[in-house]
Amino acid sequence: MNPLLVESALPDFENITIDHFEPALEQVLADNRQLVDNLVESGASTWDSLVYPIESSDDRLNNIWSIVSHFNSVLNSEELREIYKRLISKLTDYQTEIGQNVKLYEAYKRLSESDAFQDLNQAQQQSINHILRSFKLSGVALPEAQKQQYSELKQKLSALSNRFSENVLDATQAWTKLFKKKSDLPGLPESTLQLLASLAKEHGHKEGYLVTLDAPSFVPVMTYCEDAKLRELVYEAYITRASEHGPNAGEWDNSQNIHDTLCARQALAKLLGFENYSERSLATKMAGSVNEVVDFLEQLADKAIDVAKTEFKALEAFAKAEDDLEDINVWDTTFYTEKLRQQRFDISQEELKPYFPTPVVLQGMFDVVEKLLSVQVTVRPEITTWHDDVSYYSISSDGQEIAGFYLDLYARKNKRGGAWMADCRTRRRLSDSELQLPVAFLVCNFTPPVDGDASLLTHNEVTTLFHEFGHGLHHMLTKVEVAGVSGIAGVPWDVVELPSQFLENWCWQEESISMISRHHETGESLPKTLLDKMLAAKHFQSGMLMVRQVEFAMFDFLLHRDFCETGNTDVLALLDEVRNKVSVKKPPEYSRFSHAFTHIFSGGYAAGYYSYKWAEVLAADAFSRFEEEGIFNPKTGQDYKQAILEVGGSIDAMDMFVNFRGRKPSVDPLLRQAGIES
Ligand code: ZN
To answer: What is the total count of domains within the chain?
Structure first.
């Protein structure tokens, strides 16, 4: 029997191999198609006859797919990559097919309009509302002629988005510059020079150093290169990528793509009954209205702009004193910022590492969470995982097991970089007597311990661990029993980062730092003086950082609100207008930032870039209640757990927040915690 098809509380890692993936997925997709056909034929339209069977079959699919995509991330191989490519296209076909099933949509609709709907609980109702919403947003509810129009627009947008990112990629790769000697690149750290030397070899040069526009090359050049002319040259090539300016002017030019994308998005939004694409974007988010988002961004800008300007003046004064520089250019800011940072806040991550041995940090984090949320974390060495480095932990509350997670901490070959949390099992009711407990994958890429030495973490890594565990707790502490809105499922995009950023706060508080740090030789916890230095460094130029993020968010949001084929189509003028309000230093006229803004033109962030700041505000404001009442106040912790973590996506996100905070979110705590407001 295929171990992926055996229903079990935890995956059978001892026996699962990648050969099981394809047959298991095909079996489940076939079963699910059959089930949906039978259900719509039978006219089922109650929770028990329609929603629950589909939820169960989706969950079975999810339990298999979570393993496939997890293996693809942590045990990658050529062979698996091929399988994965095939399977993802089968899965996408299936999802598109279900999403376009009119009869299924009508069955859900009948249920939502029936008297029986009122008898369902909050989570059940919310889950059905979400299902209906995605049917509507995918055009299923439209009359036949408009449906055709909708799918044409969708196809057009997908082609445009591909072309946009291909252009950015091609334009990025097209520009390189070879330098013969190290001294041609004054100031670059040895590690960067090594990288540039290997890039030169890769590109077929016998020797020398190759500067490219990819981040590992571009960022160090802007940060450390002492030759201002050279920085300018690289900056110009970078900021004109995929546009009508710069060294490759007109080639891979995204100007028309931007125009066409915005036209098609507005048409799509109108077709679905929205005023504009920004309003369409908000249909699935916490933010209630277009004006609410604009006001929100303006508030942040208004409050941060003066601080940002003062910070910029300080930078100018520093550059003047340092190099007698009269006018600081855009390509100078990163360079002088780094110099100033080193001078004022000389604190390196390496210096902090001895205080954070991995086992101490882990146990400390579990202790913090126990103190904060009254849940216990226990390692379960008897449970088999996919690698010797990986451990399984269970979480219990009042002596009862409520969830579990796999922790895969260290970097290794064939494992994707970065850190993330993903779901392995979602909490849901299986029967009157049975519950599926939530299980998470927590994955990081820390440096593994070498030859018996202790594994030590930088403070950045400690923060990352807390961040991902925050996501994990959101998934695992839920009390919801309906999969579609359980844990992180169904949580709006602008809210998902709340619990993760929230938990990071315990990496910056004296009281909790003492729980998670212990010098691996002296045994002392991180001294207060070092923590103060870290906090000062954290606040460095936070005003400038804030207005820059607001600039991106405001540009994105106003663009998707105001652009219209018959009127305002001047993207650059709009960007300029935003910059007049929120920027401390205008880039040169040739700058074409918009032409490589892949987040909004080929990623998922269209009219959603504001979400970054929105979630930060929620997290900071939620934490401010702990600042007021004590960071380990058990009542506050209990309230947080109940109001935010337990409800998952089952209630309206604004109601959820107000339930915890007693009022709507305020931007002030974020500004205060960032050192912008006192
Ligand atoms: Zn996150």
So the answer is: 4
Full residue range of the structural domain in which residue 220 is found: 175-239
Find the 467 Cα to ligand 1 centroid distance in Å: 6
Catalytic residue, candidates 311, 461, 468, 616: 468
Virtual torsion, Cα 330, 335, 338, 344, nearest 10 deg: -90
Beta-bridge mates of residue 177:
211
Q: Does the structure show a pLDDT above 90 at 349?
A: no
How far apart are the CA of 90 and the centre of ligand 1, in A?
28
Q: DSSP readout, 180-226?
A: SSGGGSTT--HHHHHHHHHHHHHTT-SSSEEEESSHHHHHHHHHH--
159-184 residue pLDDT tens = 999 999 999 999 999 999 999 999 99
- State residue 392 phi and psi, 5-degree precision: -105, 140
Domain assignment of residue 671, yes or no: no
Q: Please check whether residues 306 and 199 belong to one and the same domain.
A: no
Q: In this structure, are strands 400-410 and 439-446 parallel, antiparallel, or unpaired? A: parallel
d(CA 361, CA 352): 13
Give the SS3 label for residue 602: coil
Indicate the SS3 state at residue 550.
helix
As given in the structure block, the two tokens for residue 81 are 């990559």
Please identify, among 491, 509, 524, the residue that sits at the C-terminal boundary of a domain: 491
User: Are residues 63 and 120 located together in one domain of the fold?
Assistant: yes
Can you give the CATH number for the domain in which 433 is found?
Answer: 3.40.390.10
- Type of residue numbered 442: L
Helix, strand and coil percent figures for the chain, each rounded to 5: 60, 5, 30
Q: Which tokens in the block code for residue 38?
A: 């039978």
Angle between helices 215-224 and 330-344 (to 10 degrees): 70
Q: Report how far ligand 1's centroid is from the alpha carbon of 605 (Å).
A: 15
Query: Residue 562 falls within a domain, yes or no?
Result: yes
Residues 89 and 131 in one domain: yes
| Spacing, Cα 463 to ligand 1 middle (Å) | 11
| 237-262 per-position pLDDT tens digit | 999 999 999 999 999 999 999 999 99
**Token pair listed for 184:** 């041609």
pLDDT at position 650? 98
pLDDT for the residue 295: 97
CB 422 within 8 A of CB 70: yes
Could you tell me the two tokens for 133?
């919403």
For the CA atoms of 475, 477, 480, 481, the dihedral, rounded to the nearest 10 degrees, stands at: 80
The answer as to whether 200 is a domain residue is: yes
Provide the 10 A C-beta neighbour count for residue 331.
23
Is residue 361 domain-shared with residue 445, that is, in the same domain? yes
> In which band, very low, low, confident or very high, does the pLDDT at 450 lie, cut at 50, 70 and 90?
confident
Single out the residue in 457, 491, 525 at which a domain terminates. Answer: 491
Residues 534-567: pLDDT tens digits?
999 999 999 999 999 999 999 999 999 999 878 8
Q: Is 468 part of the annotated catalytic residue set?
A: yes
Q: What is the pLDDT of residue 603?
A: 85
* Same-domain check for residues 484 and 571: no
256 CA to centre of ligand 1 in angstroms: 34
In a domain, 318, yes or no: yes
